[in-house]
Structure formats: C-alpha cells, structure tokens
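Example (one chain per record):
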Amino acid sequence: MGSTDDAARHPPPRAGSRLCVRCGERKAALKRPKTLEQICRECFYIVFEDEIHQTIVNNTLFKAGERVAIGASGGKDSTVLAYVLSELNRRHNYGLDLFLLSVDEGITGYRDDSLETVKRNEIQYGLPLKIVSYKDLYGWTMDDIVKAIGLKNNCTFCGVFRRQALDRGAALLKVDKIVTGHNADDIAETVLLNILRGDIARLSRCTFITTGEDGPIPRCKPFKYTECIYSPNAYRGFAREFIKDLERIRPRAILDIIRSGENFRISTTTRMPEQGTCERCGYISSQKLCKACVLLDGLNRGLPKLGIGRTRVGVGAYGQQQAKRSERNTSSLQGKHGNFDF
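Predicted structure:
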C-alpha cells in the first residue's frame, strides 16, 4: 500500500521529458537558443538576471548616482526590464535613481490598457512614474492622426513622435540615461532591415549597446544579448519571421547577425549625415527641420502626407530640397548611401 502511495505522489517522468542541465532536479521548461541548454524555469531566472548584470558591468552602462529612466510601455520586455533593473540595482548596489517613463500615444483600447500595467509596475517596484502624451506634446493623438492619414502610413508618425516624446519626457525628469527593453531579436531585425535598405548611417550604430551619446540623452539596451522566446508580429514582422526561420536551422543565428553588424566597417570615402539640431524645435536632426516637425507641420496644414515617402509637398525651400533628394534616390547601395567594407 505504501509503495502505491509513493508512486502516486512521485509519478515517473514522462517519456521524452528531461531534467534541467543546471540543477539536475527540476524538469526542463525551455531550451535556450544561444547555449542549447535545456533548463528549468527557476534556473532560467537566475541565469537571465546574472547575464543582464554581466552585460551592465562589462559595458559600464551606468555610474553610481545617475538618474535613469526606464522606457515603460506596459509590454513584456519593458515590464521585465523594470523588474530586473530595480532588482539588480538593489542587489548589486548600483546606486541608481530609477524612474518609469511612459508615452501615451492616444490609442483607444490599446495604450490606455497598457498604461494600467505601467501604473501597477509603479506600485510593485516602488518606482516614480512619468507619463507624457502625444496630445500634450503635439496637439494630436494617434487616433486623430489615423483619421487624417489612414492606416497605411500611421506607423511613420508613431515611431518618429514616440522617439522624440521619450527624449522630452526624459528631459523633464532630468535623467542622465534612458534604458529600453530592446532585445537580441529586435537588434538582429534592425541589422537585417538596414542591410536590405542599404542604410549605412543607421547600420553603423544600430548594434551599439549605448546610442545617442552625441545627443541630449544616451540610450542603453541591457537586453542586447538576450533573446526573446516570444515573438509578436509587428511592422517588421517579415524580418522577424525570417530571423526565426534561421534560428530554427541555426540556433545562434540571432547573435551571429548582431556580431556581423558589429563587425561592419564604413568606407572612409562614404559621406555620413552631419548631426545638427532642428531650427524649429531644437531636437537633434541631420536636416534643417527634424522629421517630427515636418510631419507635424503637414498635419496642422491639412497635408498629412507631407514628409512621407516621395511626396513633393514641402515646407518652403526645405520641402523642395527634400522632394528633389527623394527623386534622385536609386536602389544602388553605393549611389544611395555609400559603401560597405567587410
């Protein structure tokens, strides 16, 4: 009778199940692509947090006493980032003042729900929260913009406005750095897309773990070498699907793509865009007017397609210059953006 009870309490492992290679006690819950290790959930948490800590230390991402804003969207990556960074800051005594920074794009039924998650994070992790909105910054919500532009090009507005809104919010918080939850999958996709576009300027910096050091507020990516085991579809969905197909064939494909991007060198004869500031708002820009100001001007003038694609509608001489430049663009990597050196 006793042996029967023991068997009921401790059923034999099912065929094909494996134990965690690290603890040897619990059942493996996942297989890590970059190491091929099959590990349990508990060991994954330990390894994950340790790898993030090593990334922070090895790249000297922070200095004691710095004020750091965590870009918090309410999604899984930023939620994990908020938890891990607050935990590591406490555990390893980084000495950072951490803040949550969220952008409210004004998307009914989407952003309002995710902001509730961010507000819960504020309470759970004890981090001050700052929310900036498109409505307050630009006078437009994304719902308003979609009504004006339609669904085809709305991502252009959202991406440009969000990036600037994050910087503006960080400036209000007077932080030294912004951290985002971009992971290895995101960076590998960016490398691939910049190669496909022949965008030398962005390719040269998209693999940096810290960007914008020449701008108002640097941005760090502590998850740079951390792969995502969940991959939602997005604008760049085709690139992510392609990369995930590669990963199934070659598990280290994502990190290999990042390493390749890191090893690209730009030809010394290639002219790179000169960084300046927008004449209207003072934001960083390689043109007289930044992209946000061009898009916003179009919205306010009833010309929402201004600044998108190959439109000929412009803002005075600047718009004419942009239209002419767009017409001269070709599909040649050399003629359009410069040369790659391998």
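Caption: The two ends are 71 Å apart (CA to CA).
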